[in-house]
Amino acid sequence: xxxxxxxxxxxxxxxxxxxxxxxxxxxxxxxxxxxxxxxxxxxxxxxxxxxxxxxxxxxxxxxxxxxxxxxxxxxxxxxxxxxxxxxxxxxxxxxxxxxxxxxxxxxxxxxxxxxxxxxxxxxxxxxxxxxxxxxxxxxxxxxxxxxxxxxxxxxxxxxxxxxxxxxxxxxxxxxxxxxxxxxxxxxxxxxxxxxxxxxxxxxxxxxxxxxxxxxxxxxxxxxxxxxxxxxxxxxxxxxxxxxxxxxxxxxxxxxxxxxxxx
Length: 262
Hints:
The structure is a single chain. An 11-stranded mixed sheet has the order 1-4-7-10-13-16-19-22-25-27-28. A 9-stranded parallel sheet has the order 2-5-8-11-14-17-20-23-26, with no helix packed on it. Strands 3-6-9-12-15-18-21-24 form an 8-stranded parallel sheet, with no helix packed on it. α2 runs antiparallel to α3. The chain has helices at 196-201, 206-220, 226-234, 242-253; strands spanning 4-5, 10-11, 16-17, 22-23, 28-29, 34-35, 40-41, 46-47, 50-53, 58-59, 64-67, 80-83, 88-89, 94-96, 104-107, 112-113, 118-119, 124-125, 130-131, 136-137, 142-143, 148-149, 155-156, 161-162, 167-168, 173-174, 182-186, 189-194. By secondary structure, it is of the alpha/beta class.
């Protein structure tokens, strides 16, 4: 099945479009762009720069993907953007290219970015993210798999790390790392609870949820400092579980520091 494009679409002859790609009216696709099979670009979207988009994605009107970084340290070259398969990018979403030659802003598979989201330079976003309207990811943010981010202008600061299966409430201001399985909210965001609903929706059983609840209480509710809390988790009877191992690894690797408990 050949590429299907509206007569008013502007597609550079050097762009590489896969089988079954659809491009709507007045959309613009630049010379370095590569788009995988069966991806649909709605009308009036802009895809530019050294940008690769995977298969079966859907890009809605007025989205801007792959434009030059907003980072003032940009010194030229062709840093790019890499987006995986089955992503849905809604109206007015902006995704900027990386800053330095050889770097990429990276987005995995099966993510949903609702209207007006922004993904800044050099972000690394995993799989199965749901980002609600107006969520913003500053430069160099790392987001692991199965994360939920509320909308209403939720802002994630540069270099923050968001752990897997976590959730960030709407209108939150995230200044430090959000650990796996936790729920962060507020100004600044603090850990309010563990992400019970999100874990249930993703198939965690009662035993796994009990482990996460134990970790949450130990780390954020027992009045221990971080060193004491880590020691308590490592010495507990849940230390062998996958959930505890993931949490411990994340905490020990944190460079920006963890969001505090409420």
